[in-house]
Amino acid sequence: MKIRYRGRVMTDRAARLLSLALSLFIPGNARSDPGTFDPHTIVFIGSSSIEFWKTLPADFAGHRVLNLGKAGTTYSHLVANVGEWAARYPARRYVIYSGDNDIAWMRSPETVARQFREVASSLKASIPGVRVFVISIKPNVIPTRRVRIGAVRKANGMIASEAAALGGVTFVDTHTAMLGPNGRPRAEWFTIDGIHLNEKGYRLWRDILLPELDRPASSKPRLVARPIEP
Fold first, then answer.
1. Residue-level pLDDT at 12
2. What is the structure's pLDDT at 36?
3. How many CA atoms lie within 13 A of 185 on its CB side?
4. What is the pLDDT at residue 35?
5. Integer Cα distance of 160 and 156 in angstroms
6. Cβ atoms of residues 49 and 195 within 8 Å
7. Hey, what long-range contacts does 23-32 have (CB within 8 A, 24 or more apart)?
8. pTM for this structure?
9. 29, 73, 105, 189: which has the highest count of C-beta atoms within 10 A?
């Protein structure tokens, strides 16, 4: 089927890109009926690393999960939407992943950490007793993003500090486990683009994240392997 936009026939690639761009403006909350929402659901919010986690239900078998990830998301998008999500989905557990795009697009670690704090604080203020889990910003194989590794590590350190100060928030470091002995990211975790995770990469994330999600709510949130500073 040919897709037309403003009178022109679009190539398959252009159509996919348009669909992706438009999807950023479609509320993720349209995917579920809030009237039947189960607060035991684990809600995942963030960028493409969340949206593309197609094995999420299988990886967290035994848990109800809701994937609200959107490709291209930054922490500023999360700040803008978190209040609505919290109102519609008052889950007891939220998982956040963002920061990749922020750092790649030259936003400072300080800005990323501040906006993370805004997102986590909004969840805590809106949902009494909510537990928040933030996944560290991952390293990337692609050279154009790898050059920003110092900013990534600084942002991770600052987010970890914010999580500890907030209380009820767990910083989950998947970053360190993705590095090889030489300190560089291991290509085996990534798709061919060097940015997104493959199934093996997602299994690694699951193996690190799942024990934290299953930890009793009465347990004190802890820092999970804080990444080294650059």
1. 54
2. 82
3. 26
4. 64
5. 6
6. no
7. 23/70, 23/71, 24/70, 24/71, 24/72, 24/73, 24/77, 27/81, 27/84, 28/68, 28/69, 28/70, 28/81, 28/85, 29/68, 29/84, 29/85, 29/88, 29/89, 31/66, 31/67, 31/68, 32/66, 32/89
8. 0.82
9. 73
What is the count of structural domains for the chain?
2
Query: Which two tokens mark 17?
Result: 């890109």
**How many Å apart are CA 47 and CA 217, to the nearest integer?**
26
User: Around Cβ 7, how many Cβ atoms within 10 Å?
Assistant: 5
The token pair that represents 77 in the structure block: 């998008």
- In a domain, residue 102? The reply is yes
The verdict on 10 and 93 lying in the same domain is no
* Helix boundaries (H) for 127-198: 143-146, 149-166
User: Going along 1-142, which residue ranges are E strands?
Assistant: 3-5, 8-10, 42-46, 65-67, 93-97, 131-135
Q: Do 1 and 25 reside in the same domain of the chain?
A: yes
Q: Is residue 116 part of a domain?
A: yes
Judgement on whether residues 86 and 10 belong to the same structural domain of the protein: no
Indicate whether 95 and 4 sit together in one domain.
no
Longest CA–CA span in the chain (Å) reads: 59
The one-character DSSP state at 218 is T
State the 10-residue block means of pLDDT for the chain, 230 residues long: 44 50 43 73 97 97 96 97 97 97 95 98 97 97 88 97 96 96 94 95 98 82 47
As a whole number of angstroms, the distance between CA 69 and CA 64 comes to 16
